[in-house]
Write a structure and sequence with these properties.
single chain, 5 helices
């Protein structure tokens, strides 16, 4: 029964991850980082303007990082709430949360999530 719950949670985690704006946030962060590196390395931009522009890039980088941290926290909360609920109501003999922390539980969860993602990407266009 524990592994059925792990399978459901793994599928749930993939669906949540695909619906959260992770890709856009990471792309924003990478775009700002590339601009900052280009600005710092450019010999055609004076130090005065580099200082001004880097403050703007630092702010954008900071907000993107905070947004990404928030997305990760939301993801973890949405994935772990069902696990804690199962453990709280003693629906299984063994703690699902503790099972997910073992090598076997992590392996099963990872393989199931990757398999589901692969199958989903083939079937859903």
């Amino acid at each position: 029964m524990e592994y059925v719950i792990i399978a459901v949670v793994s599928i749930w985690a993939v669906e949540i991850f695909l619906r959260l704006p992770v890709r856009e946030t990471v792309n924003d962060l990478l775009r700002v980082s590339k601009k900052a590196i280009h600005t710092v390395l450019s010999p055609h931009i004076s130090d005065h303007w580099k200082e001004k522009v880097m403050l703007v890039y630092a702010k954008k980088s900071f907000t993107s990082t905070l947004k990404l941290a928030g997305i990760i926290l939301i993801f973890l909360a949405l994935v772990l709430i069902p696990v804690f609920a199962v453990d709280h109501f003693k629906l299984t003999n063994q703690s699902v949360f503790l099972l997910l922390g073992t090598a076997k539980g992590l392996t099963v969860s990872t393989v199931l999530a990757m398999s589901y993602f692969w199958l989903r990407s083939r079937l859903v266009k």
